[in-house]
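User: Hi! Is it possible to get a structure for several chains at once, not just one? Here's what I have:
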Amino acid sequence: MILAGVTLSAIAHWFGDAQHWRGGDGIPHRLVQHVTICGASLLVAVAVSLPVGVVLGHLRKGGVIAQNLANMGRAIPSLAILIIAVPFLGIGARPAELALVALAVPPLLTNTYVGMATVDDDVRDAARGMGMTATQMIWRAELPLALPYILSGLRTATFNVIATATLAAEIASGGLGQFISTGLEVNDSVEIVCGAILVVALALTAELALASLQRAVVAAPLRQHRNTRRPINQLEEPDDANFPDAA
Amino acid sequence: MLMTSQPWVRWSWVRTHLHVIRHLVWQHLYLTLLAVGIGLVITFALAGLARAWRPLEGPLLALCGTLYAIPSLALFAALVPFTGFTTTTAEIGLVGYTLLILLRNLLTGLDAVPDEVRDAAKGMGFGRWRVFTRVELPLALPALFAGIRVATVTTVGLVTVTVFIGEGGLGSMLMEGFQNTFRTEELVGAVLVVALAVVADLVLVGAERLLTPWTRRARA
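Assistant: Yes, the chains can be modeled jointly so their relative placement is included. Here is the combined structure:
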């Protein structure tokens, strides 16, 4: 079998080479770098977006901002942030982390906002009627209901961050992208393909881990709505609002 | 530091390089439009397949999802041994990334067409093709357009990454500016990429309003 012009045996040989598993250029070290950069970026992004999204969603204010932020995030290429940040933060992991935080915040913030803002009014009324304070309402009623949205935002963010961190190697911050960059430089397609395999494997592993986390922490009745397919939309309006006969 | 003592934008450079900048904007636009255009054609073909044989829908979406999951730099790089440092390589990758967004939105839009509407059209003697072109497609347009907008804005950003395989449009300004530590080129490139995405999005919003006048009437 041939993958992008590279034979499977060449790939197996590359992965079997003990030299690729040792030292600063070895797979373990590059993997740790990749995970560290992604993990740090995601932590910062979560720390920023979650409180803001929860509060705005609870107050049902600033929806336009939350939404436009997601669209803006799509429009600003990570490569641009990466490159422009270099003179301020120096070569290395810092500009990469800034670009990745900027990449992760929009899906996290938008999903958190939408999850909180779409909690049924009856539920909020009932919570208020039971004498819950705003804080109790957020923690006990709204957050659990918004969790599927928040976690799917986290999945999107994680996936994008792991994939995009590949670009970070171009500004010498290391990570698994280094194999791809080096491969491109010295025209070694085996190394490119093997680097790509490593990144995809890491992304899929993270996706599976987060999917099982989602299954573990989301209440059973809430899980089914994750399966209904929603259009990838700019505005989270009800689907039928788009159709004339619904009006 | 040398870099920070530079002015943000050296306008004299911009003035003398207008023709280069214009060329790169066009290249960027061309790569984007070609990708979204080809993506749309493939999407319609795939949607036709999924409609002709329903069990195919799940695997098709899963396939596009997998394609969407491959890091862009890795995908472009992995295609190089195959198709070289060419526009083809860039387009294969770019088209691949539009498919999931477009297909999912088109299918969702088609699914949301009420059965009664479809029945009424059939009752009026519409054949399968006419039901699709005159009834289902117009009603699915808002969902499809949402997909086209997301796909276009995403592609404008992704085109910058193709600089690593010798294409890149405005991405080559980013990279060249970075390599020469020349801030003007980086900034002008970045601003133009964002501007291009915003303008493309606005044009699509306008096109959607022109094509679906009834959605405004319904909301008013």
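Confidence is low (pLDDT under 50) at residues 233-247 of chain A. The beta strands of chain A are 2-3, 6-7.

User: Great, thank you!
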